[in-house]
Amino acid sequence: MSLLGCAKSGFIICVGLSIVLLAINNINQIENDLNAEAEIKECGFYPGELCKALYEGKPAALVVGNICQEALPPKREGPIILESNCSTLIYDLHFITEPLSAEEADYPLAYILTIHKQLDMFVKLLAAIYTPQNIYCVHVDRKSPKTYERAVRGLASCFHNVFLSSRQETVVYAGFSRLRADINCMEDLVRSDVAWKHVINLCGQDFPMKTNREIVQYLKGKWSGSNLTPGVIQPPHIRYRTQVTYKEFVHMGKSYVYPTKEEKAGPPHNITLYFGTAYYALTRNFVEFVLTDRKAKDLLEWSQDTYSPDEHYWVTLNRMKEFPGSTPDAGWGGNIRAVKWREQEGVSHSGCSGHYVRDICVYGLGDLRWLIDSPHLFANKFDPSRYGLVTDCLERRYRLRVLDGVEVPVKQSWYFQDEYSTMSWQ
Ligand SMILES: *[C@@H]1O[C@H](CO)[C@@H](O)[C@H](O)[C@H]1NC(C)=O
Ligand SMILES: *[C@@H]1O[C@H](CO)[C@@H](O)[C@H](O)[C@H]1NC(C)=O
Predict the structure, then answer these.
(1) Model confidence band, residue 42 (pLDDT cutoffs 50, 70, 90)
(2) Which of 83, 105, 137, 354 is at a distance of 20 to 30 A from 70, taking alpha carbons?
(3) Does residue 333 surpass a pLDDT of 50?
(4) Is the CB of 166 under 6 A from ligand 1?
(5) Phi, psi (deg, nearest 5) at residue 196
(6) Does the CB atom of residue 292 touch ligand 1 within 6 A?
(7) Catalytic residue positions, numbered
(8) Does residue 199 contact residue 110 with C-beta atoms inside 8 Å?
(9) Which of 347, 413, 372, 357 shows the shortest CA–CA distance to 8?
(10) CA-nearest residue, atom 7 of ligand 1
(11) Which ligand has its closest atom nearest to the C-alpha of 88?
């Protein structure tokens, strides 16, 4: 019985039942497999078989996987960045150093990565999405520790096409600073001589579900010359975000956005506000236009004291006919990001196997199946310090898919070495 087979109404009962059934059917198996400390150590080899059983949603694998995850400290990529030279880093972190196909070489992408913590996850993300024809702007939060920034800067310095944004913000959740950080990177990216076609923004808790080649084919196909910004006309329950003015509070390591009593006038130029995802794929023409256009600048200015302007700015501009690459009739379509929202439980997913943070699921082992079935380009959120096996499984499966059918000779270091184990799971 698969947890993911559970319907919403019966979810809790179903989970309970699964656990009981597990206990009866699989406990002997599990005890056999884990009867000695030595065998728990086997978890540390990231067994491909265990991952495979987890993808298939096998209950025994879930139990053992969770035991492994609890028992073993996560593998830390972060510290080695500060200690190693670039050739060692590129080798040890399995960075791919050549374009893998002509199609990808001809369609460079730009990335904006806004990060503030969890070096390990950033390294996994960059190692997954890195390819030499793309360009990567990293925005490190001004309030991040200096050692963190130094490590990121050190890693970036190993690549001609990875750089830290020239302007740094103190990013406040749901604040204007989050939008400003993206724009800082865009200002750097439009000056780049890399001929990027679309820019994609990610945060430090994202991981790709589709390979660079699949992303290129998706954007070249359905979204050729167009922006991908899922969203709709601002719904009534979202109006509070733009009806009064908001302020950012930053003091002694604490920061948040709070509403004031001051009513806010409507948007400039009588612009109709849309609401949607802060995550996008935008064309270069659109970005260049937005950075110089009067209307776009006025909307940006007006958005400074609104709640989470990154969730209206891009969507709104991309609905305006005169903007290059705009899609005025777009709705929620477009597979930019897989997210398990708490409110979507029983609708688009059957629950979060990890835990919710701000009503967004941090994926646990029981979410792997749902993730690999997802049509989206990226998924959010991951936390390797808590669910290390989730990211270990995904990054290995992902790399095998990336290297499948490439047009250049594959280097040994591009593979994760510890792929297979002899363990088998019922
Ligand atoms: C980088 O470090 C490795 C291991 O410490 C060493 O063998 C190698 O020569 C170094 N490479 C460079 C270019 O300094
Ligand atoms: C603003 O837009 C609304 C609806 O789109 C329209 O009815 C109204 O006439 C416009 N006002 C101005 C001043 O253009």
Answers:
(1) low
(2) 83
(3) yes
(4) no
(5) -70, 150
(6) no
(7) 311
(8) yes
(9) 347
(10) 88
(11) 1
